[in-house]
Amino acid sequence: MSYPGRDAYEEMDDDGVPLFLRGDDEKTRRRIEVLLHSSPHGLIVTDALAEDHPITYVNTIFQYYTGYDAESILGRNCRFLQMRGEFADKRHPAVDLKTVRKMREAIAAGQEFKGELLNFKKDGTPLINNLLMTPIHGEDGIVTHFIGIQSFRPIKMDLGPLPERPWKDVPPVRHSELPPVQPSEESFAAGTFGGASRHNPAVFEALSDEVLVSRILGRLAPKDVAICSMVCRRFRRLGQDDYIWKRVCRNSWGHNTAAAIQAALDSQTPSLGWARIARELTTLEAAAWRKFTVGGSVEPSRCNFSECAVGNKLVLFGGEGVNMQPMNDTFVLDLSLEHPAWRHVDVSAAPPGRWGHTLCCLNGSWLVVFGGCGTDGPLNDVFVLDLDAEHPAWREVAGAGPPLPRSWHSSCTVDGTYLVVFGGCTDTGRLLSDTFLLDLTAQKPVWREIVGGFKPPSRLGHSLSVLEGSKVLMFGGLAQSGPLRLRSSDVFTIDVGIQEPNWNYLTGSMLPGGAPATGPSPPPRLDHVAATLPGGRVLIFGGSVAGQHSPIQLYVLDPKEGRPSWRMLNAPGLLPQYAWGHSTCVVGGGTRAVVLGGFEGEERLLNELHELSLLDVEGGDGALGTSELEGRPEGAKQPDGSESDDKESGESSMMEERSALEN
What we know:
This protein is about 15% helix and about 30% strand. The chain is of the alpha+beta class. The protein has three domains: about 10-155, PAS domain (Beta-Lactamase, 2-Layer Sandwich); about 200-285, Monooxygenase; about 290-660, Kelch-type beta propeller (Neuraminidase, 6 Propeller), CATH 2.120.10. A hairpin with a 5-residue loop joins β3 and β4. α9 packs across α10 (about 255-265) and α11 (about 275-285) packs antiparallel against α13 (about 650-660). Keywords: Chromophore, Kelch repeat, Photoreceptor protein, Receptor, Sensory transduction. It comes from Klebsormidium nitens (Green alga). This is Clock-associated PAS protein ZTL.
C-alpha cells in the first residue's frame, strides 16, 4: 500500500533522523528536538502499514541499552526484546501477557500506549522498559507509523541459564571429501572454473554455519531446503537441525501462522519436529479424516448459521430457526479442552437476528458479523465482538457509505484491519458483483468500493480466501452468465493493499482469458469449503455440485505457480457426508479443517464433527489410517466412489515432492 511519506525515512537529516519525523511546522520540530536531546531515551519508529510493523528507525541510545546494533534491529518487530537473548525463539514466560495484549489493542486501534514491560538485552540481562508508543497520522488521517520512546532501567531477576545457540558447528569439509568438480564448456567460456562460482561448491567453506543458516537456508522454502540437503554432507547435517526447519517455516509461512501451528501442537506428546511439520504440510502426505463427538448443545436447532474459528475455539452465531425465524445468539466450542462442549455465551447488545450472513475473525479474539437476511429482509450492518473481554458485548460499526443490503455474500478480513465483502443477493433476488472494503480500526470508518478495471460476474455462495499479505482469492459460487445462473469453478485474485486494486482472472472455464489449469479441476460448485494452507495453497471441497449433494473429494491449488495446477488429494479415514462453507472452519494455523454436524433424518447434529488433519499427530500408526500417499488398501474406493488412479489424482507429482523432502 502506498501513502505519503512511505519513502521519507530513506532520507535522514544531520542527526540521522528521518525527515518526516521532524514535522512540517516549527512547533512540531521544536517538540521533536526536545524529545531527542532532553534525556537519554531510546527511540524507534515502526511502519504501521507494513506487515508485522517492522522497525524502520532506531537511535543510538536504544542500541546502547539493548546491546543490539542497528543491522540486527531494523526490519524486525520489536517483540524480539521480549525474548531472552539473541538465540531465544519465543517470549520469556516472565513477560506480562496482559500488558502485551493492551499494547496490541492500542496499536490495532491506532491509539497511544503507556506501560512497563519486561525486556532483555542481547546478552540476556533483564530490563524494565517504561514505554510510550504514539501514532503518526498521514495526510488522509491513516496511521502510517508509530514512535516508541523507551526509558530502560535494570532489574534483578533469577532467570537461570541463557538459551544457547540452537545449532551446532559442523566441522569444515576438506577438499578431499568433496566430489571432483568437472570443468564445463560454460565455466571455461565464463572464465569462472576454479573460482567462487556456481560450479564450485567449495565456495561455501568460507561461510560460517551461522551465515549459512541465517542468510541462506533460513530464507528458502521448505522444499528448497530439502533439495539443498542433498547437495553435500555439510548441508545435510545442517538440515537435520530442527531449529533451522522452524526458522524456514516461520519465514516461508509467516510468523503468525508458525506461531499458531506451534500453539496448536504444544500439547502433543511426543511433540512433532519442525522438519516433519514442513514435510507433511508441503507434501500433504499425512492428510486424514476422523470423526468425533462433543458435549453441550446448540438450542434451539437451526440451519444457515455462520461459524468461524478464534484460535482453537469454534464460534457459531445466528441462523435460521423454525418458520424462517432469524436468530442472534452466540455459542462457543473450545477444542483445546479435554472434553469439548458447546456453551452459550452471554453477550450484551446482540445484533438483530439473521441468517445467510458472514462471520469472520479479526486480530486473534475479535469477531465481525456482516449482512444476512433478518426479519425485514437483507441487512448491511456490521457488528464486532471481543470474545476474550471480561464482559463480551457486541458493538455496531456504523461505516459511512455502506453497500447494498445483502445475503449469501462472502467476506474476509485482511491485515487485521480491513473487512472485504464481495457479491451476494439483494431482496429482489438480483446477484451482485461489487467489492467493498471497510477499515475496522479507523475512528470514523468509511466503506470504500473498488471501482474500475475488471469485475468478476455477479454471484452468491462463493468463497474468499486470504493469501499472503493482502491478497485475496475467490472461487466458485452461483454466477450470472447472460440470462443464466450457473455453478462456477472460476478463480479470481485481488490485492486489496495496493493503491488501485483490480480483480484478475486466474483460471476457470466460464470466461475467456483465464489460464488453463493443469490437473483435474474441481467441478463447479457453490457454498463449498475453501481453506488457505500454510504456504498459500488453497484447499477446496464440499458444497453443492450438480448431480452430487456435497462431494468430499479434496482439491488443492497453488495460485503462485506460473501455470495454475489443481491436484486431487485423497485422504483416508471417516469422511463426512456433507460439508458446507458456512459450517466449516480452519484451526491450528491452517493444519485442521473442522466440519460441523451430521444429520439424523433432516435434523442437524451439531455434536457430531469431522476433522481433516494435515499433520499425523498419531505418529503415523494411529487410528486415522494409512497416509493416502503411502498407498490405499487394494480395491479401496476414492471419496467419490471411484477406483484409485494415481495418474488422474495427481499423486505422482506429490510423491516427487515427498521424495525430495525425505532425503
